[in-house]
Design a protein that fits this description.
The chain has about 160 residues and is an alpha+beta fold. It is built from 4 helices and 7 strands; from the N terminus they run βααβββαβαββ.
Length: about 160
């Protein structure tokens, strides 16, 4: 499919935020309801492991990590965000992005990746399982989205090369 994975740049924000918006509009990708400014998004995410999937100069999807805590003991744990544009879903873009994110995270010394996924987001659950994440539990009614209390399924992937 000739997909290129490259680091995300600030100049990618227009395309990245549009894909993020598409995810928000599904109602099962995130608790967020508005696209943040780039500065807000940038502050909330790690400076490393920000990736773009691109084909023919068109951004198909993106992945990034957020710190799970400011405590140094959790410095090797990152929370995954992965979003695929609506016209690129089901084509293997997510798997390529996630495999690249895993490799990049291990280069950065990150030993655990975790994700919280809405139960109805079957595509994301399947993607995480394909790349080695395991289901570790469910947080029931953990957040409210449009007046509806939502569960969140927790998945994690432990590195086999970092933190062992």
């Amino acid at each position: 499919m000739n997909i290129i994975i490259r680091p995300m740049e600030a100049e990618d924000w227009a395309s990245v935020s549009e894909i993020y918006k598409e995810g928000i509009e599904t109602g099962f990708a995130t608790f967020e309801q508005d696209i943040p400014s780039y500065e807000t998004w940038d502050f909330a995410h790690m400076k490393v492991c920000r990736l773009i999937a691109e084909k023919d100069d068109s951004i198909l999807g993106w992945a990034a990590l957020s710190p799970v805590s400011s405590r140094c003991v959790y410095g090797g744990v990152g929370e995954v965000s992965v979003y695929i544009g609506q016209n690129s879903r089901g084509m293997g873009v997510g798997k390529i992005l996630m495999e690249s994110l895993i490799a990049e995270s291990e280069k950065e010394g990150i030993w655990t990746l975790q994700s919280g996924i809405f139960p109805e987001n079957i595509g994301s659950i399947q993607l995480h399982e394909k790349v080695g994440f395991r289901y570790i539990g469910k947080r029931e009614r953990v957040g409210n989205l449009d007046g509806i209390w939502k569960d969140n399924l927790l998945f994690e992937r432990r590195s086999k090369v970092v933190g062992i």
